[in-house]
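quick q for whoever's on today - can somebody do inverse folding on this one?? i tried earlier but teh output was garbage lol. tokens:
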């Protein structure tokens, strides 16, 4: 933690995307976890949980977008995460949107990004995952479509097939605001066709890897009802709630017209409300991963009590550094103990 605090002011003088690349480079090094990993080590038994047929040492994960190409998985797991989600990966390499496309809002502990699925493509990610091949920790992969693709469903099926044998679970990203038309795939008829294609692809394999769908925090109530019902009908394994938001509630005028998705503290209330409503609509039958504005143990516990079986962080890691992971885990274990709960699973949905 001391190392990060010393470097943080200097990192913030560097353009945010360049600073992110530098951080990934450090995390990809062999000594990253030893120097920066304040969250590693044995987790308390109360944090162990089984979700999606997988055993997690703790429920705190890293959201997709931080390590798009899987270059620093072991360094990130070494920070103490229970799981890491890589991607979003598209079939073909993609440069993403023009720069600048990542903006810090330090006074709000937030980010705005319009990256546009910049990544090295499925083949590169599959090769990195195959090289480490489940060496340690749970790794999910987030898949999307190329911006100029004429067949979105074919792109997702390609992602599914490329990463099927290399990831522990797969997330279908239909909710980024930075690829034109992507969020239209959340409509019931289009999402139904997409899920059907993925289920047909999965049926051709001997094992059934979990398939989750990542949704937007900006869904209207009727859209959320349709999507939740569809997920139950089609036996989707879970939902990730949610992606970045296009809303600018509480932000000053200088940020309201900045295109892109907003993440961090301003997203917490919106995403947690959506999470609780999804848990209620699904009657607790869908495993949910809660994302959006988690910056401490209280936030993680609130997500869990709102219905999340697992929780992911992203923006707070940028502002608080690697010590955040251990602080969240210690605080979460303390809150479970104070509530007389033996396992994190006992708190899921307690407030709904």
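ok took a stab at it. sequence:
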């Amino acid at each position: 933690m001391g190392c990060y605090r010393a470097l943080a002011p200097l990192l913030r003088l560097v353009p945010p995307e360049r600073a992110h690349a530098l951080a990934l480079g450090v995390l990809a090094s062999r000594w990253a976890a030893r120097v920066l990993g304040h969250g590693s080590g044995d987790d308390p038994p109360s944090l162990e949980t089984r979700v999606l047929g997988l055993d997690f040492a703790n429920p705190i994960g890293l959201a997709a977008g931080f390590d798009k190409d899987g270059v620093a998985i072991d360094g990130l797991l070494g920070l103490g995460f229970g799981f890491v989600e890589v991607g979003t990966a598209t079939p073909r390499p993609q440069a993403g949107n023009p720069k600048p496309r990542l903006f810090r809002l330090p006074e709000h502990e937030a980010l705005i990004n319009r990256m546009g699925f910049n990544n090295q493509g499925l083949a590169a990610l599959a090769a990195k995952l195959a090289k480490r091949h489940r060496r340690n920790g749970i790794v999910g992969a987030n898949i999307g479509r190329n911006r100029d693709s004429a067949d979105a469903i074919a792109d997702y099926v390609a992602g599914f097939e490329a990463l099927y044998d290399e990831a522990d679970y797969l997330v279908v990203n239909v909710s980024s605001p930075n690829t034109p038309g992507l969020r239209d795939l959340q409509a019931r008829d289009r999402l139904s066709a997409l899920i059907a294609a993925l289920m047909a692809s999965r049926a051709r394999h001997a094992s059934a890897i979990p398939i989750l769908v990542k949704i937007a925090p900006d869904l209207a109530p009727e859209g959320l009802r349709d999507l939740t019902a569809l997920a139950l009908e089609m036996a989707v394994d879970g939902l990730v709630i949610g992606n970045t938001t296009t809303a600018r509630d509480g932000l000053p005028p200088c940020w309201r017209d900045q295109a892109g998705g907003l993440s961090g503290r301003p997203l917490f209330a919106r995403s947690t409300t959506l999470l609780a409503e999804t848990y209620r609509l699904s009657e607790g039958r869908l495993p949910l991963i809660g994302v959006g504005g988690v910056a401490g143990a209280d936030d993680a516990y609130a997500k869990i009590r709102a219905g999340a079986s697992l929780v992911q962080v992203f923006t707070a890691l940028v502002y608080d550094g690697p010590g955040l992971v251990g602080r969240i885990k210690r605080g979460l274990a303390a809150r479970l103990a104070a509530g007389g709960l033996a396992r994190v699973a006992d708190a899921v949905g307690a407030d709904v």
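fwiw The chain has a mean pLDDT of 92. also Residues 65 and 87 are 6 Å apart (CA to CA). so keep that in mind when u check it
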